[in-house]
Design a protein that fits this description.
Layout lengths: L2 H12 L5 E6 L4 H14 L3 E5 L11 H4 L7 E5 L2 H9 L4 E5 L6 E2 L9 E5 L8 H6 L2 E4 L11 H18 L10 H12 L4
Helix pairs in contact: 1-7, 2-6
């Protein structure tokens, strides 16, 4: 690994956030998944969880829309909600869904310095009732227009950039946020990846 490459890898790894993740609930369009992966990489989210109960697992997401983010973001795929929730609960304290409900809070009222998994649902049906039932709460993105929904990749980007803003203010990007074993494994893996 060249010194420049090592510096780039270390810079990215040192900004990874081990207490924030995204769950995609039966998102159908592989380009939406790729766009989410790219945005997750840009804010330092290392892993995402993809639930596919209706369609087969993806072997590869849209290369153009991800710009190779699949090399830098760890993707866990599940074909049932229960296994995914168990895996997420073993690492994250709260699961919050994007769901329009009476108890939904504004995105801007969430404390993103906590350990959180954010759920974004299917393009037509939204988050499944099963995931809503096991979540710790719902949130909405405030909107002023006539259309009260955003594309899933846009909704995710708006949300995790607010999370990044809060985490920056709290100093979370000033020190490594991943467990040491994961950090070292990624350092070795990334050292051999092509750009």
């Amino acid at each position: 690994m060249t010194p420049e490459r090592r510096e780039r890898v270390l810079s990215a790894l040192n900004k990874r956030q081990g207490n924030l993740t995204v769950i995609l609930d039966d998102v159908e369009d592989p380009h939406n998944i790729s766009a989410v992966m790219r945005t997750c990489d840009s804010v330092g989210i290392q892993e995402i969880f993809v639930i596919k109960t209706k369609l087969p697992r993806h072997k590869r997401w849209g290369f153009r829309s991800s710009s190779g983010a699949n090399k830098w973001v760890t993707v866990h795929q599940f074909d049932n909600i229960q296994d995914c929730v168990a895996a997420v609960r073993s690492k994250y304290d709260k699961i919050l869904t994007t769901h329009l409900a009476q108890d939904a809070v504004s995105l801007y009222d969430i404390d993103f310095t906590a350990s959180i998994a954010l759920v974004f649902g299917n393009e037509q049906k939204g988050v499944s009732e099963e995931l809503i039932a096991v979540s710790d709460g719902n949130f909405i993105i405030p909107q002023m227009g006539m259309i009260k929904s955003l594309n899933i990749s846009v909704a995710c980007a708006v949300t995790i950039y607010e999370a990044m803003r809060q985490k920056m203010l709290a100093g979370h990007y000033n020190q490594p946020g991943l467990p040491e074993a994961e950090y070292n494994a990624l350092l070795e893996q990334w050292g051999y990846e092509e750009d």
